[in-house]
Specification:
The chain is α+β, with helices and mostly antiparallel strands. It is built from 12 helices and 17 strands. Among the domains are: 80 residues, no CATH class; 107 residues, Immunoglobulin-like. It is 41% helix and 18% strand. The protein has a 5-stranded antiparallel β-sheet, with no helix packed on it. It has a 4-stranded antiparallel β-sheet with strand order 6-5-9-10, with helices on one face. A 3-stranded antiparallel β-sheet has the order 2-14-13, with no helix packed on it. α7 packs across α8. The protein is elongated, with a radius of gyration of 40 Å. The two termini are 54 Å apart.
Length: 524
């Protein structure tokens, strides 16, 4: 609206400003209507983003592998066992669902090691990682030839390189399969395979300047040798493994040191389903909260008599009255929304579609939908049944929830288009897929992100301003600008018309005054 200073109504005595304001009211109503439409779109976007935020929090809480306490997709996190072991013990153990409860004893006589070639003592002044190879007797360039685990690799080194450069180059060119270590204490260099066990092998030639004579035969690694006494056995059973981390009878062992048979490491596997039940309950409760919130938005009636307030209406209301009015005006804006309805339907399907080859159903582990139809698919937990299932059929329960598939998640397919993958993966894996479909920040082959992000966007992402609702808002802004421009032109026209009337009236007044003056002169 123009801010021109006008002095009106001097000749006509009319309240021009008020008359123009009344004439403009009908025109202004058009602008207010578009502003109200824009506000409704903005509120819808805010509601979508609130749901997106809830889904993102849910995802980061239970599906982020770095959140170890809450991560729900790990089989170990759902194993109904706890371990009692000395924190200073030279081994670490975890129990899977296949473990047997009871006391175990472990004696370790040998750790698994890679194949290692140790060089002789090097003679150089102030020997350290930055010592040049020229100081070790290398002149020009040469090739160090490595044969490891059936692979041959020739690595070129030069006298201008340092010991540090040598270490980095060997590690890089063998992709970490052969690692080089240097000790200032013993003043020697060691080549060793990352692979451990008797099947690891290493041969080094061309490294005489490092104190390593050319080898005829490769050296080999060594297996871990240990003994285990299980709850069912009164004597130790000797075992060998090529690595220091392995799983036997549902117990995963990590060997970090030795322990004699006379003083073995003792630990107890306890049946303890409570932490698992608590974790599943927390997951289901958060899931139910989100489902309940979305269902309320989908079924909420639209209060059509409560439209967004205009600026003039707000001037006549108190702040708390405006807040209450707007809360009412926001109701029902997502009623029957097809995107949210489809997501909720898929989430329900994820729970109640059977999982292939797990041998147990959701009802058998104590999970079902509420008999109260108003709760619309919320999950109810029978803790007693869940406890029994975990303690008697633990692995089946784990598979039901977190079983994986060789078929990878494909963002180019909808949930219904992934029948083979959905049939194979566990319930929690399916829910993760559905979250990816809707709030994924990566793009598919068509350049699209998650469905909800494409619709409403999310702050901090490219979609914040590049989404369908933001484009609708931009279109409304463009229309409002056009209408305001026309409004200003219309108002200016009305003022010009009244100005013409003022001018005509002033002319009439001038003529009348002249006439009155002439008549007055004649009567004298």
């Amino acid at each position: 609206m123009p801010s021109t200073l006008r002095i009106t109504g001097l000749a006509t005595g009319l309240d021009v400003d008020n008359m123009v304001k009344q004439l403009m009211q009908a025109e202004k109503t058009k602008v207010d209507k578009v502003k109200q439409q824009r506000q409704l779109i903005q509120w819808r976007q805010d509601l979508y983003r609130e749901i997106i935020g809830d889904l993102n929090t849910f995802k980061s809480t239970f599906f982020d592998v770095l959140n170890k306490d809450k991560y729900i997709l790990s089989a170990n996190s759902l194993a109904p066992y706890s371990i009692s072991i000395d924190s200073n013990a030279p081994i670490k153990v975890t129990a899977t669902a296949d473990a047997q409860a009871g006391q175990y004893e472990v004696a370790v006589s040998q750790l698994a090691k890679g194949a290692a070639v140790v060089g002789g003592e090097l003679n150089a002044e102030n020997l350290n990682l930055d010592t040049k190879l020229s100081s070790l007797g290398l002149s020009g360039t040469t090739n160090i030839n490595l044969t490891y685990n059936g692979t041959d690799k020739s690595i070129e080194v030069s006298d201008s390189m340092s010991i540090r450069d040598l270490i980095n180059k060997v590690n890089s060119e063998t992709s970490g399969a052969v690692k080089v270590r240097f000790s200032e204490l013993t003043k020697n260099i060691t080549f060793e395979t990352s692979k451990t066990g008797v099947n690891a092998s290493l041969k080094v030639t061309g490294a005489s300047f490092l104190g390593i004579d050319d080898m005829i035969d490769p050296v080999t690694g060594q297996n871990a040798i240990f003994k285990i006494k299980t709850p069912n056995n009164s004597s130790f059973v000797e075992v060998q493994r090529e690595t220091n981390t392995f799983t036997i009878d549902g117990i995963t062992y990590t060997l970090n040191g030795l322990a004699s048979e006379e003083n073995p490491v003792k630990f107890t596997v306890n049946v303890d389903s409570k932490p698992v039940i608590d974790k599943i309950k927390e997951f289901v409760n958060k899931y139910n909260e989100i489902i309940d919130k979305i269902n309320k938005k989908l079924s909420e009636k639209r209060a059509y008599s409560y439209q967004p307030l205009t600026d003039d209406q707000k001037k006549e209301m108190k702040e708390d009255e405006i807040k209450m009015w707007e809360e009412k005006a926001k109701e029902g804006l997502l009623k029957g929304d097809s995107i949210l309805q489809n997501m909720v339907f898929n989430l329900r399907q994820a729970f109640f579609q059977s999982v292939k080859d797990v041998g147990i159903s959701l009802q058998e582990v104590g999970l079902s939908t509420s008999s109260d139809y108003t709760q619309k698919g919320k999950i109810i937990i029978d803790e007693a049944k869940l406890k029994t299932a975990l303690e008697t059929r633990g692995q089946d329960v784990i598979n039901l929830f977190v079983k994986t598939s060789t078929i990878a998640y494909d963002p180019n397919k909808t949930y219904s288009g992934r029948e083979d993958r959905n049939a194979e993966i566990g319930i929690f894996q399916r829910i993760k897929d559905i979250l990816e479909d809707n709030i994924r920040t990566t793009r598919n082959s068509s350049g699209k992100k998650g469905i909800l992000l494409e619709k409403a966007g999310i702050k901090g992402d490219f979609t914040e301003f590049n989404n369908l609702l933001s484009k609708e808002l931009q279109e409304k802004d463009r229309l409002i600008d056009e209408l305001n421009k026309k409004l200003a032109e219309k108002e200016d026209k009305y003022y010009r018309d009244f100005a013409k009337l003022e001018k005509a009236m002033q002319k009439f007044n001038d003529q009348a005054n002249w006439l009155y003056s002439q008549i007055g002169a004649m009567n004298k």
